[in-house]
Structure formats: structure tokens, C-alpha cells
């Protein structure tokens, strides 16, 4: 089937929005061609304006763990919209979503809702700085924590895809307070804290790095972060915007058994609407206005539509059978993709944490940003295009995680694996 309508819309959009898109990775720059314009989505599938259907492994970059337009979420949203889209005043829905989240993340003793993951990390860092009275922060290479100034340093997929390590427009004075260290390197981390510990407010980390594909923490790495930050009075922030409710219901912190001081959430907790949240230790969160002096606000924060989508999503996720089903589907895909690569004679490394995953086109074990960069991006681009032609939508960059949803049926997985085998046969080493 053709993609003429998408192409025409893209051409038009180029004159209207920077790069024709409202978020850079959507633009297919890393894989060639032009983005598809989507008219609707249902379950595991996206439908473009030309009428083509695609099994979707992007899922709006992670949030749609129930699949697109889940009937329970849509129904609740319609009912909520009838009652008003925003109150600018407290509503019981905010408490309901907060309690669902806090029950799953016992490390969160107090929480605040915001509108995106970017706002969550930005605000958590402000709280940590206000609490400690220190300015510097540590982040890790390849970790993306949203696009706030000072966090756009060695920040994963977007920057990796476009080859811009640090974004212009970020004052040097901001970036100066950001120390960047290699992920999974406990020794370098320990040495840095011994030198700079007293001036560091926070350490922020993606406990599983999803913004350069899917990089798992080495045994002991997260434990070292926990132990050393505690020793130096530094706030440990887990950015679980992607991993939250994704790696497990309790996120990476439940999976790895680490209790951070603060947690950032987003994506899944909004059920496809714009939501972020940050929270953590009561004493730290008490610095936030109006309880404390650290200012943070939002006109639409906690709005009833966003809360409703989140509540309905978490209600379904909290059923025990949900993650069992997700795990089974994920295993089928993992097995299928790794066997297809082997059979086709293409060297890959497959990683996953819960239902986020990445196939790297490399023979090197991927443990950090340097090793992720060994992946053959050209080969990935060919794989991506071949899959898209066969009706499978992957994220358009080697350095993005893929996701599955509850709506992905075995036959969808099998169709995907068959397509992958065909494409991989054309990519032999
Ligand atoms: C997506 C993401 C963010 C940013 O969230 P937005 O809602 O896009 O602002 C922050 N941190 C991580 C780990 C993410 O994956």
C-alpha cells in the first residue's frame, strides 16, 4: 500500500513545525524516509492516513501498556469529560491516583502530580537542591531525563540520533553543575563522591537505561548508588518515567529491591494522557510549596481527565494476571526475535527488563553508552524499514526501547517474528 498521504502531510508539516514534528525522534531522521501520519489506533495497531495498519511497538513511547484506546480507559474518559476537563481546584481523583501509585511505590511518602516526565525530573532536582542546599548533580551517560536545561548533557537517544552531545541554548553555567559519569561504573562513581560528595545535591539515574535502547544495571551498581549517596547525604533520584509500572508494577525499585529517596514517574501513570509525578521521602517533599519554600506549580496539574486515564490504567495493571500475561507475551517475542536473528545469521544482542526491550545490531555486550554505540546503525535502519514495509512499527532509532502491551496477542507476536526473520535474512553478517 502507498504512503502518499503521509508524504504530502509531512511536506506540509515541514513548513509549519521544526522538522515537521512536535518531538524530534518522530521525524525518522535516523532511519531515512518520512514519518507516517496516524489517523487512529486500536489495541496493538496504528492506522495511518493512507489506510495501512501496523503492529505497534512504540506505544506512544511507552505509556500505552494496555494498548491503544483500551475500552475501559476510553469509557472512563468519556464519562470524566462530561463532568468537566479541568477544575483548577483539588478533586478526589488526584488522591485516588496518588494512592494507587504510593501503594505500588512504598518509597514515595508524598507525591506531586505534574504534566510530563520532564517536569517531574526538573522539579525533583529542584526539591533535592532546596533540601540539601547544594547545587551540583550527577547523571549518567546515555540517561535521558527530559529536556530541562542542565539535564541535556550526554542525554541518550535524541542527542545520540542527531549527534549533538549537548544542546545549544543551554547556558554553560547550567551544564557546569551537571557531572556526567559512565553508567554501570561503580568505581568511578565512588571516587567522584569521595572528591565532590559535599557539593552534590542529587544523583539521578534511569535504573534501567531505556533511552539508549535497554541497558540493564550490573549486579551491585544500583546498590552502590544507594549506599554511597546515603553516606554523603545526597538525594538518590530514580527516574522511573519509563521503567515505572513497566519493568514491574513496582518499577525497577521493586524489581531490584532498592529504595531511592525520590522517584519520578510519567508515561504509564498517565494512561496516554499528559501526566508526570515526583515524590519520595516526606522530609524532602515537605520543602515543596506551599508546605515549604521550593516553588513548583501547574495550571493543569492533576486535571481530572489525566487522573482518570491513569487510575483506569493502574486498576487494570494491579490485577495479578496482567503482568503474567505481559511476561508470557514478552517471552514469546524475546524467543522469536533472538532465534530469528540466529537462524538468519545476524549478530545481535537482545536485552529486556519487564516489557521494555532492545535488539542491538552488535556483537559487543551492551552495558553503557560506549558499548551501545558499537551497534550498527545502518543495519538497524535497514531492519527498521523492512519491518515497516511489512506492517511492523518499531521506534525509528537503534537507541530506543521497544514496548509491548496487553493488547499484543500471540498471533501479533508471531507475525512480527516472521517479518523479522524475512528482513534479517537480507541483513546477514
Ligand atoms: C520519556 C522520559 C522522560 C521525559 O518525559 P516527557 O513526558 O517526555 O517529558 C524523562 N525520563 C525518562 C527516563 C523518560 O523515558
How would you describe what is shown here?
This protein is of the alpha/beta class and 429 residues long. It folds into 2 domains: 4-69 and 320-425, Aspartate Aminotransferase, domain 1 (Alpha-Beta Complex), CATH 3.90.1150.10; 71-317, Aspartate Aminotransferase, domain 2, CATH 3.40.640. The protein has helices at residues 4-14, 71-82, 92-104, 117-132, 157-162, 172-175, 186-196, 221-232, 251-256, 282-285, 304-317, 320-344, 369-372, 377-389, 410-425, and strands at residues 38-42, 45-48, 53-56, 110-114, 136-140, 178-181, 200-205, 235-239, 262-265, 276-280, 349-353, 356-360, 392-393, 402-403. The strands form 3 sheets. The chain has a 7-stranded mixed sheet with strand order 4-10-9-8-7-5-6, with helices on both faces. The longest helix is centred in the C-terminal third of the chain and has 25 residues, at 320-344. The protein is globular and about 60 Å long. The model is unreliable at 161-165 (pLDDT under 50). The structure holds pyridoxal-5'-phosphate. Residues 116-118, 121, 144-146, 206, 210-211, 239, 241-242, 266, 276 line the site of pyridoxal-5'-phosphate. Pyridoxal-5'-phosphate (PLP) is lined by residues 116-118, 121, 144-146, 206, 210-211, 239, 241-242, 266, 276.
